[in-house]
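user: can you give me the structure for this one chain? tokens are fine.
assistant: on it. calling the predictor now.
[tool input]
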Amino acid sequence: MEVWWVMTVWPLLVTAHSGHSGGAPRISPAPPKFVHPAHNVTVVEGQEVTLMCSVTNLHGYKQLAWVHEETQSILSIGRDLYTRTPRLSLHADRHSAGLTISPVLSTDRGWYMCQLNTEPMTSSRSYLQVLVPPTLEEWSGSYVEVREGAKVRLTCRARAFPPALTTWRRTDANPIFRTPRTVWAMEGSVLVFESVRREHSGAYTCHVDNNATSPVSRTTHLTITYGPVLWLGKDLVGTKAGLDVTLNCTSVANPPPRHYWEVNGVNITNSDKYQVKEVKASTRTEVLLTVRRVSDGDFTRYDCHAVSPTGHAHGTIKVYKIKDPILIVPTRPWRVIQPGKAPPYTYTTRWPSTPSRNTSFNNTHKDDKTHLGDSLRTTKFVTNMIPSPSGSWKSPGRSGNKHPNQIKYKHRGGLSNSTTLVVVDVAADGGGRARYVLPSSLTPLTILLLHLLLLNLVGFG
């Protein structure tokens, strides 16, 4: 290439700028010498640079020329420019020539030769290195919106010299991908989602760096749209008549949907009877419906709807009536005493011949008295222990003519293997039928046993 320049540039220099009409110029005993030796110059694209060339011992040689080797073009000869590029300017005198490029472009990169018209030709070469900061040539933009399930390509392609490396990361520091493995960063000018999901929504930053100039970063906000998904707080709600009841349903969608309630196919609006309220948080919306003073006609089905341009979802809540429980109230309150919890009385097993309304019996404590009852409808144990479910029962039969409405039972067994006497009063109702009144201190199992015994032994018709 240098030989080509000798053959191309040198005849032009001799023809255009020779100081004599014929013959070679006079040779100085001391040959010319370049003051600026060959050197490399590094500059960032867009800046200004000046390439210097100066000689000593010029004598009769008057012509300094600049040549760009990469494009094979003569830029200047002496004090004249041979290019129409407005970015180039020349500052030359008899001993020097300064070539200024402003602003520098990447196409200016390469070798520059300063030539002197000696025989043979004398030259000095300099290399101009042009650094190109990362400059985006293709970018997806600040906002990208796509439907869930679609393929997405986020692009961040830049030109740079030296070539730059592009790295993608999520701005919120979460991983880009979680399956099949966790990926925190991706290298390359294009970030691809084969089937984008709603959890991929977020901001993604591409960082372009060539380790020679200032890096460049850009952020793209990726928005995923999807239809509403709706779920209910409860699909079956019970309440009592006259009370207020609140129903709720929650939806997630992007963009946020429009919500409304229906009762029996009729749209519900705010009124004295109904109150609708929405609570929003990002893509999540909770919708509340309050029914005031519930009446019989309000025990029915209520439908919650969520509608958006990307889909429709609904759910049904049924309101039912809670009825008051039916309580069986006895004619007299019972006080059930657990086995072993009765007062520690020891009664005699001998009954008085003519028990009165307030007949009393002596016990082991002389100062304590107890009463059989105030009528034949009230019967108490005559023992200090409630009979155990285990053991055996024996009925001596009725008490004869003295007490025709009393039946005595003896229980033997239990933990203490003792004998217990139980007296049950039987009161006759009108119509010849009979009922029996059990002691209020019996355990449920003992009552059941006595019930079975009485059915077999009481002969009332």
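assistant: here you go. The first helix runs from residue 2 to 17. Residues 360-457 form one domain.
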